[in-house]
Specification:
With 272 residues, this protein is mostly helical. The chain is built from nine helices and no strands. It has helices at residues 2-16, 28-45, 57-81, 91-107, 112-135, 139-179, 200-220, 224-243, 246-271.
């Protein structure tokens, strides 16, 4: 009888040994919405210049779909978890204050339609932050996201330098070749780089944020990736030079000095 009862006693234990998947692991739909959001982010970052962010029918449509993806992403997390993800460290209060300011500025704006579009865009960016905070649970996942962003930065720099060389650099060099034999001094002007965002200031602002990330990845990574990040940093500095933006160099210097002070302060706290 003991031998006949043994399988019956073991069967419930076998069933209970198969746990349900962890609630922390994102669902396939959440993963696909995150990948789709990243796809639209890359597409719109490298998109050719047009009449502003909301100008042009195709670009406006891409922006609307791209902003809808993170909202659906975060909405799926809310329906699944029954609670709002938290950023922690006081950032939730800052996010709430930003939402209130966006609402107030939209209500009292001189151009309500334009202000509403900007507020919707800000809401989409905020949804991305909360969704990433929920889905990226480990340092390895967060480091992988930074590597993906580093590749996007490299693609941006390659597109920017390549487009500037084709549309401005090479034609200016050809003009210089044609007039260098003439008597007297001849100046050949080169247009500042405005590819792919449309203005030199926008290119410089993007590079001010991209170059510190590439430098940090070069410090953190090993092997062939370190050389890749170092080469990207050098090309990024060259790309910033082609924008002819004094404010870009000033911003990069201020940001670099702030990072240096923060690193020294962190080392002092670690030693104490």
């Amino acid at each position: 009888m003991a031998q006949s009862n043994r399988p019956a006693n073991c069967q419930p234990q076998t069933v209970s040994a198969n746990p349900v998947s962890s609630p922390q692991s994102p669902l396939p739909a959440s993963l696909w919405l995150g990948k789709l959001t990243f796809f639209f982010y890359v597409l719109l970052t490298l998109f050719p210049p047009s009449e502003g962010i909301w100008g042009g029918g195709l670009r406006a449509f891409l922006w609307q779909v791209g902003l809808l993806c993170p909202v659906l992403w975060l909405l799926g997390i809310l329906l699944r978890q029954r609670q709002m993800p938290r950023l922690g460290g006081g950032w939730d209060a800052i996010a709430l204050f930003a939402i209130l300011m966006a609402i107030v500025s939209t209500v009292f704006a001189e151009s309500p339609n334009k202000a509403l579009e900007c507020a919707i865009a800000a809401a989409g960016y905020l949804a991305v932050v909360y969704a990433l905070k929920h889905d990226l649970q480990t340092p390895q996942q967060r480091h992988g996201l930074l590597i993906c962003q580093g590749y996007v930065n490299l693609g941006f720099i390659a597109c920017s330098l390549g487009g500037w060389a084709i549309y401005a650099g090479i034609p200016a060099w050809r003009r210089w070749q044609e007039v260098r034999g003439l008597a007297g001094e001849v100046e050949v002007s080169i247009a500042p780089n405005e590819i792919p965002l449309g203005t030199p200031g926008a290119i410089a602002a993007y590079l001010v944020l991209a170059l510190p990330l590439l430098a940090g990845l070069a410090i953190a990574d090993r092997g062939w990736r370190r050389g890749l990040w170092l080469a990207g940093s050098g090309l990024g500095l060259l790309d910033l030079y082609t924008t002819n933006s004094a404010l870009g160099w000033l911003g990069l210097g201020v940001l670099g000095q702030g990072c240096f002070i923060f690193m020294n302060f962190s080392l002092c706290l670690h030693r104490q």
